[in-house]
Amino acid sequence: MIWIASIQCFFGLLSVFVFRDKTFTDFIYPSLLCLILAFFLFIRTNRGEQKKIFFREALAFASFTWILMGVLGALPIMSVTGVSFTDAVFESVSAMTTTGATILTGLDEMPKSFLLYRQFLQWMGGLGIVIFVVAILPMLNVGGMRLLKAETPGPIKNEKLAPRVASTSRYLWLVYLCLTIGCAGSYWLAGMSPFDAIAHSLTTVSTGGFSPYDASMGHFQQPIILVVADVFMILGAISFALHHKLFTARAISGYWQDEETRWFLIALAVFSVILTVLAFNAQTHHSFWESLNQAVFHVVSFMTSTGYGADDLSAWPAATAGFLVAASYLGGCAGSTAGGNKFIRNVITLRILKHQMLQAIHPRAIMKVVYQGKAVTNDVIQAVMSFMLMVAISSMVLTLILMLTGLDFFSAFTAVSACLNVLGPGFGEVSSNFIPVSDTGTWVLTLAMILGRLEYFTLLTLLLPQFWRD
Amino acid sequence: MIWIASIQCFFGLLSVFVFRDKTFTDFIYPSLLCLILAFFLFIRTNRGEQKKIFFREALAFASFTWILMGVLGALPIMSVTGVSFTDAVFESVSAMTTTGATILTGLDEMPKSFLLYRQFLQWMGGLGIVIFVVAILPMLNVGGMRLLKAETPGPIKNEKLAPRVASTSRYLWLVYLCLTIGCAGSYWLAGMSPFDAIAHSLTTVSTGGFSPYDASMGHFQQPIILVVADVFMILGAISFALHHKLFTARAISGYWQDEETRWFLIALAVFSVILTVLAFNAQTHHSFWESLNQAVFHVVSFMTSTGYGADDLSAWPAATAGFLVAASYLGGCAGSTAGGNKFIRNVITLRILKHQMLQAIHPRAIMKVVYQGKAVTNDVIQAVMSFMLMVAISSMVLTLILMLTGLDFFSAFTAVSACLNVLGPGFGEVSSNFIPVSDTGTWVLTLAMILGRLEYFTLLTLLLPQFWRD
Ligand SMILES: [K+]
Ligand SMILES: [K+]
Predict the structure, then answer these.
(1) Do B318 and A408 touch (CB under 8 A)?
(2) N or C: which end of chain A has fewer CB within 10 A?
(3) DSSP letter assigned to residue B435
(4) CA A175, CA A183: separation in Å to the nearest integer?
(5) How far apart are CA B228 and CA B189, in angstroms?
(6) Spatial separation of the C-alpha atoms in residues B351 and A232, rounded to whole Å
(7) Which residues does chain B have within 8 Å of residue A318's beta carbon, measured at their own beta carbons?
(8) CB A282: neighbour CB atoms within 10 A?
(9) How many Å apart are CA B21 and CA A100, to the nearest integer?
(10) In chain B, which residue's Cα lies nearest the Cα of A357?
(11) B338 within 8 A of B305, measured Cβ to Cβ
(12) Which of A271, A262, A276, A337 has its CA nearest to residue A299?
């Protein structure tokens, strides 16, 4: 059931969109291929309908969807821009995972329909990931997300996935659409053209970060546009289930009562202060207000894993890159389109570490790690810590592999972190695009994006031999 | 009791050593100061003798000992070399924690007695840390070291620390001395002068890495010397309790039966193969055997956190630095003088991650993480993971702080990892010594060495307000 619902949704929307663009045969053949594939998959899954579809199938389905969509989405990119298959898949996966890393240059001269296709692909990816993390992950407790169960509405006790996914998808889709329309309207009021407003709203709410311009947000002169982007990037990085709950209840103060959102906003403020001080001291801008605006924008862009740029960061103090990469590791809130560790895990991790120290002082006392007023169970603690360690280990191992392909340490590490955290921009050799990366390196980074987007464990379980045994 | 025993041991040996060197008044005044301080501490602790000394006191004692010894050991360094107080404390703490990072240049021209003092300080530090990790840490379960309890001989059930420390210290001291004598003899047979053999044996067995020469092990031409160093660095990085057990039982095969030692040796082999291939491909040496010898030596030097150098690593491929830093994070075995994460934690962490994936596939199955044939308890799992996360977080935070003091990312990160893992040498700006680091940065790195040496949690608990309340 889930197969059908999601695949139809994906393919339907993709083909509708693709067909609209009548100027490009580049789009028509791939979309026909998609329809044929969808048809066969539909037949296949209809046959298997009787079987109970659960943990294993959900894991496999999520991984294969992203990989398949990545490859299919790559076909128009290849035929329009003439890049290699490797690069096209990288670009397409970068769109579908809302990473926003690019191997293209000269965007400003490309056909508008193609640019909008890229933006739309990212918007679709954002919707897909929200459905995945809100409806599927909590059932699997991947990375400790069982905690979120309490937040999602409706009955949740080990029911079959399909009806749940369908009902959850409906309201998520509504929230997502409202935010996008609000964002596009605000951009337009702030001074963007209608095309720019729509194109950027698609990648702001999805915290994707693709832009139809090489200069990204630096293309626009109005400071107010950065502020609009700030607001909608933050909204896109807050739990969509929470948005829905608070919109229907009309209780805006609920954002501050939610521990995860509260700490996310506090962290944004702290990092903004640090970066403003750094930028202002280095006199990279004309006024304090410009430094503030730019610093806040970049902190929001990196912490929400959007990855928009608006300035030449290499002119900023060297420590800026360090803080921005650290911000991208922290990430946004769970149940949103943002990447990174997510604040629910950051908060729980810090509490576990404090708990460890207290336990060392009072070894016989019985203490609990508390989150949002409830004691966190051992299995959630271990899942959260496993996730965090997986982030550290993946960063280290993938950086080493990229260094073997010839990148220097700084470029390799920032490229890996940009992909794992589905952030987008790197530093050093990969600061403007990922063209300097070798073919092998590009495939490694493509995998890194899927790995990070699917919260590591979803993809990695497929590698275990036990997964394929019965 | 533990206060008195350890302080007397430390101060006694230090003053005996210091007094031996009659040519330098630089040594006499500080050593008098030490004796006076020891006397006052002796009186103070005698008064407090009746109180039960346990967890909190053990934690505080360990931290303060290393800080105090660092400051006191710095005095002769200041007066002999004329460096600032900051730099002298760094050098002294670097010695006491067996880090081996240096802010000195022109070692070859310095007085031999001073150079031997530096080496001896590191040897003392090695002994201190072995007693600390074997006798005290398992009682506190800092970083999951309760697991090691099974390994240490004698009754261990919540007894008072003092008699246990005394009995354990005796055999550790014996093992340490035997290894050092064996190492010095082997160096001498391999062609070193008696002074060089003794000086290097003191910092090989302690995996400290100080050398009386600027070129470190590169000072010697005989390839066989590197092989001798390999053997004794590895022995110094294997659990001393295990050494004692197997020496008395005359069962050399026991090393391979010990899971931690086995994986440590396997990892050494794997990294050696990778580095040999890298070095041989880049043709940095005249022959395959030279590449092999150099690659194995550097892998052993970094993985055991000794930090000896024997070649100009900047001529090696860029990925070399990445692999060596990664090796230093892996570290040696628990209960030895080595730094880093220790293999017992590496092995358990990987098993926990695998366990998480299996649990995602079979959510209802009851599975256990097994180490050395026994199920690992939840509190050990959480302590191990907390330790690993603390390593990652400390590395990130301290790197950011160092970048604020003006270092570039690569230098800052490798400097921090060199200090946290008590390794010694960094890369980039800090590849030959730590002089380019600012004063603030030097203090940060001094703290990092103590933080890493005392397994993070020992020092960090002192920062909790709860520690100081009753
Ligand atoms: K992004
Ligand atoms: K060392």
Answers:
(1) yes
(2) C
(3) T
(4) 12
(5) 10
(6) 41
(7) 403, 406, 408-409
(8) 15
(9) 65
(10) B461
(11) yes
(12) A271
CA A229/CA A296 separation, integer angstroms: 11
ipTM above 0.95, yes or no: no
Q: Which of A114, A93, A113, A117 is nearest to A103 (CA)?
A: A93
Sequential DSSP letters for B41-56: HHHHHHHGGGS---HH
Radius of gyration over alpha carbons of chain A, in Å?
21
| More confident call, A21 vs A433 | A433
Is the distance from CB of B292 to CB of B276 less than 8 angstroms?
yes
HSE-CB for B287 with a 13 A CA cutoff: 4
- Is the CB of residue B123 less than 8 Å from the CB of residue B205? yes
Instruction: Please report where in the chains the tokens 């390994």 appear, as a residue.
Output: B151
The CA-based angle B143-B149-B150, given to 5 degrees, is: 130
Least confident piece of the model among A140-154, B334-348, B428-442? A140-154
The pLDDT of residue A149 is 52
Residue in this structure with the two tokens 């194995």, named with its chain if needed: B296
Place of tokens 């998520």: A172
* A316-342 confidence digits (pLDDT tens): 888 899 999 999 999 999 889 999 999
Cα of A176 from ligand 1 centre, angstroms? 16
Residue A423 among known ligand-binding residues: yes
**Residue A145 contacts by C-beta under 8 Å, 6 or more apart in sequence?**
A133, A137, A138, A334, A383, A455
Residue A417: pLDDT band with limits 50, 70, 90: very high
Cβ-based neighbour number of residue B109 at 10 Å: 7
- The minimal CB distance from B319 to the residues A360, A378, A400 is found for A400
CA B100 vs CA A103, A177, B17: distances in Å:
44, 59, 20
Cα A139–chain centre separation: 20
- What is the Å distance from ligand 2's center to A366 Cα? 38
pTM for the structure as a whole:
0.89
Choose among A353, A386, A392: nearest Cβ to B386: A353
List, in order, residues 6 or more apart from B172 with CB less than 8 Å away: B127, B130, B131, B134, B135, B240, B241, B244
Report how far residue B201's alpha carbon sits from residue B184's, in angstroms, rounded to the nearest whole number: 5
Q: Percent helix, strand, coil in chain B (nearest 5)? A: 70, 0, 25
Tokens 């909608």 belong to which residue?
A: A232
Count of CB atoms situated within 10 Å of the CB of A221? 7
Mean pLDDT over B280-298 rounds to 88
CA of B398 to the centre of ligand 1 (A): 26
d(CA A246, CA A243): 5
| Among A161-170, B102-111, B423-432, the least confident range | A161-170
> Is the pLDDT assigned to residue A461 strictly greater than 70?
yes
Q: Which residue stretches of A250-337 are H helix?
A: 254-257, 259-281, 288-303, 319-330
CA distance B158 to B54: 10
Task: Summarize pLDDT for A61-82 with one digit per residue, the tens.
Answer: 777 877 887 887 787 788 778 8
- When mean pLDDT is compared across A174-178, A465-469, B53-57, B417-421, the lowest value belongs to B53-57
One-letter amino acid of B172? L
Pairing label, strands A374-375, A370-371: antiparallel
**Helices B55-81, B439-453: inter-axial angle, 10-degree rounding:** 140
Q: Give the pair of three-digit tokens for residue B91.
A: 């050098």
Q: What is the largest CA-CA distance in chain A?
A: 73
What are the tokens at B154?
């004698």
- Residues of B within 8 A of A460 (CB-CB) are 357
pLDDT for position A45: 52
Residues in chain B, how many?
470
Asked whether residue A464 is marked as a ligand-binding residue, the answer is no
At residue B106, what is the residue type?
G
CB A453 within 8 A of CB A422: yes
Helix (H, G, I), strand (E, B) or coil at A408: coil
pLDDT of residue A253: 84
